Amino acid sequence: MQPDYRRIVILTGAGISAESGLGTFRDKDGLWTKYDLRDVATPEGFARNPTLVHDFYNARRRNLLDAEPNAAHFALAELEQAWMARGRKITGADHDFLLVTQNVDDLHERAGSERLLHMHGELLKIRCENCGSIRECRTDIDIASVCPACELPGYLRPHVVWFGEMPFYMDRIQQALEACDLFISIGTSGNVYPAAGFVAEARRGKAHTVELNLEPSEGRSLFREAHEGPASEVVPLYASRLLAGEYTQMW
Ligand code: APR
Prior knowledge:
Blueprint: E1 7-12, H1 15-18, H2 31-34, H3 37-40, H4 43-48, H5 50-65, H6 71-90, E2 96-101, H7 107-111, E3 116-118, E4 121-128, E5 134-136, E6 156-160, H8 170-179, E7 182-186, H9 198-204, E8 208-213, E9 225-228, H10 231-244
Parallel strand pairs: 1-2, 1-7, 2-3, 7-8, 8-9
Antiparallel strand pairs: 4-5, 4-6
The structure holds adenosine-5-diphosphoribose.
């Protein structure tokens, strides 16, 4: 008998956007091989040298504005639509679907994903450390940029979560992990907590766990099923199998 999955949680990382031309962090040529993350991705680094940090995120923002979603982003958006429609048809109530991304790019939403949480923030937003306002931002910012809300210069920072800061939406993610019966991790190396611990939490709730990645991640042994290959190939294939009711379980 096939498992009757109802509630899906999907975690994505930089690997899903690699084929869109956005660099990953820990691969050969990854961002953390070129930059010291303590300089550009910590509150202390920002306090030490805000210009360096703004330059780093300005370059990433420009790169993102030139990038396009790939087949993996589109496949997840289509899976969400089909899954929710199926839920309405079969049970009369929505199935649950939550896409949690560690990525700060907006490629999931551009592909059409709606039930989406950016646990590490969003590159196309800035936050004011003086008044707390969060605004869209598609241009470069620097230490003299003025907050559009409080009109003071010098307080804007990227709306991204740095090392040592608390990721966003943890309560909602926790609840979804406890309730899900299928957890899929895509394109993440499993190096950074709390996201790296999601598979264990999903397993505690008895979810089936699947890894889709270019190569086995740090946490590979924690997953019950795994498929290796580029996200643009393995994600559409896995999504179509899931929708067709073909659950390929290994291990
Ligand atoms: N398809 C699928 N997976 C890929 C592809 C691809 N085309 N290219 C690379 N990968 C895989 C790599 O094998 C690696 O396991 O994606 C993973 C990327 O890992 P990381 O670079 O560590 O990125 P991520 O896991 O998202 O990092 C987590 O670390 O620095 C922080 O805040 C940053 O959100 C980020 C977090």
